[in-house]
Inverse folding.
């Protein structure tokens, strides 16, 4: 019998008091696509970081093609044929796809490559594309590329060493649209056929069924299941239940009862921001959740920012609780009672080196401060502790810097920050990227709770999310609002509106 592409035995890893991984056994066969699943903090990232040489394991052994390895850094892992594409690959925006693939980040940044090297690039790229055919124009700069093109460049960069046999992808689809995802899956299929083993982390359970051959589930740092995807289908198993260790009754909370809907809190008329969106109008009432479905580039992100005063508008009006406001800055918007939970927590949402308490209370300094402006530490600890418990923050350690939390738990902290703000209008942008299904159900429940005293807007490029959480919906398509007069539509109508820009009736 031939040895598997990769085998890990009894891997353990601790971070201080946290057992991030305990006694993990794992097998990755040659040419298989293997999905790693688990709730936030289950240990998936730690495991792939050990395989790729970022972290050292405390115990256990790893073999590649039957040969024991012990990598001290990522370069050594690459030498043994294990390459990793991070969730947010660092590419050089001003350089072409070719340059990014072959020159390495440092060389590309310094621009130190000769004409001969440049000519050589296309020859080598063509050889690479012959091995792994994919439709992409590598002469474009990364800045000109779409999200999926950037992902493809990062994958080709990882595969540029000829001997790579294991490719690790960390949530490769989290920022891709449905159409882009299909393009990526085609490339993954090509890799599988070329005998490359692909190990990838995802929170999108439906795509596991679509692309993976096998899946493994982490729970609390242990590997609790590993099986062919065909078995999940044949036995009708629930992946959510495997991950959570308990049944999940529903992901989305019930819709609002008609008598729970109150007065209009926000009225938007003819809102226009050049190049982003035009003539947007809607009313948001207390007690309801408005879902806005928009793909990347639809203007949804800009609309959220404009309502929050983070980007200027050219025309239209925003009326909050009967008063016309024109928030020119997030500070003004916050003061008026609008709170934004941004999509990209790394850039906009969190002070990563600060503790989670600091981050949660940041949004409402008035509430967090005593009369003399001194932070009420004990009170804040209690209130933010309560939110952390409601969101099942893991570990529930409020004094830990945010950077020590797993990605999904960082997202929960952003939301807890919003909950502390006591606003009249909450705007959530892509609220559950990287968040596991159990925590997602909790977040949706909290949004519904928030709508008890406020109006809530959820902007998402995931049609199921925008439709599932909302009482009313509309789509944004290339900056235009695509909305039926009554705001009621089925999931498929919303999908067509957001993807094609057309209104359909079933
Ligand atoms: N550098 C670190 N320092 C301290 N604790 C850490 C560190 N990295 C991970 N942990 C802890 O180890 C556990 C496993 O985290 P890990 O990032 O592997 O989870 P994950 O399954 O990848 O989660 P997510 O889906 O949210 O990314 C968590 O409790 C996390 O807080």
């Amino acid at each position: 019998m031939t040895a598997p592409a990769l085998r890990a035995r009894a891997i353990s890893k601790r971070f201080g008091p946290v057992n991030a991984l305990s006694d993990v056994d794992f097998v990755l066969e040659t040419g298989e696509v293997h999905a790693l699943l688990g709730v936030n903090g289950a240990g998936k990232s730690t495991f792939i970081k050990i395989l790729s040489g970022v972290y050292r394991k405390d115990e256990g052994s790893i073999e590649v093609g039957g040969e024991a390895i012990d990598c001290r850094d990522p370069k050594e892992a690459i030498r043994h044929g294990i390459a990793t594409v991070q969730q947010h690959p660092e590419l050089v925006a001003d350089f072409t796809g070719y340059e990014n693939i072959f020159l390495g980040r440092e060389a590309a940044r310094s621009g130190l490559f000769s004409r001969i090297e440049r000519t050589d690039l296309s020859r080598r790229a063509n050889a690479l594309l012959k091995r792994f055919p994919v439709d992409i124009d590598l002469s474009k700069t990364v800045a000109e590329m779409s999200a999926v093109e950037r992902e493809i460049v990062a994958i080709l960069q990882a595969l540029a060493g000829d001997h790579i046999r294991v490719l690790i992808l960390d949530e490769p689809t989290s920022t891709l649209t449905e159409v882009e995802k299909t393009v990526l899956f085609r490339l993954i299929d090509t890799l599988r056929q070329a005998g490359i083993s692909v190990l990838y982390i995802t929170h999108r359970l439906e795509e596991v069924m679509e692309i993976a051959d096998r899946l493994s589930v982490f729970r609390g740092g242990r590997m609790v299941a590993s099986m062919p995807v065909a078995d999940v289908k044949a036995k009708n198993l629930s992946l959510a239940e495997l991950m959570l260790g308990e049944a999940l009754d529903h992901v989305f909370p019930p819709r609002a009862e008609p008598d729970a809907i109150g007065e209009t809190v926000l009225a938007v008329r003819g809102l226009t921001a050049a190049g982003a969106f035009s003539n947007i109008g809607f009313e948001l009432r207390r007690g309801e959740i408005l879902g806005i479905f928009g793909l990347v580039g639809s203007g949804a992100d800009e609309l959220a920012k404009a309502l929050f005063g983070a980007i200027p508008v050219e025309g239209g009006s925003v009326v909050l609780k009967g008063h016309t406001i024109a928030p020119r800055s997030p500070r003004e918007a916050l003061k008026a009672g609008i709170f934004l939970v941004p999509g990209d927590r790394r850039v906009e949402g969190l002070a990563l080196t600060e503790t989670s308490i600091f981050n949660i209370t940041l949004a409402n300094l008035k509430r967090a401060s005593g009369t003399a402006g001194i932070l009420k530490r004990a009170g804040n600890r209690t209130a933010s502790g309560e939110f952390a418990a409601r969101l099942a923050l893991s570990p529930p350690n409020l004094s830990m810097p945010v950077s020590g939390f797993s990605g999904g738990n960082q997202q929960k902290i952003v939301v807890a920050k919003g909950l502390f703000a006591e606003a009249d209008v909450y705007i959530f942008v892509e609220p559950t990227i990287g968040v596991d299904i159990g925590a997602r159900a909790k977040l949706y429940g909290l949004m519904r709770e928030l709508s008890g005293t406020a109006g809530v807007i959820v902007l998402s490029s995931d049609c199921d999310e925008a439709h599932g959480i909302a009482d009313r919906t509309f789509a944004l398509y290339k900056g235009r609002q695509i909305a039926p007069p009554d705001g009621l539509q089925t999931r498929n109508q919303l999908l067509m509106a957001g993807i094609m820009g057309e209104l359909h009736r079933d």
Summary: The chain has two domains: 6-244, 258-500. Confidence is low (pLDDT under 50) at residues 365-376. The pocket of adenosine-5'-triphosphate is lined by residues 15, 18, 20, 38, 40-46, 394-395, 404-409, 436 (CB under 6 Å).
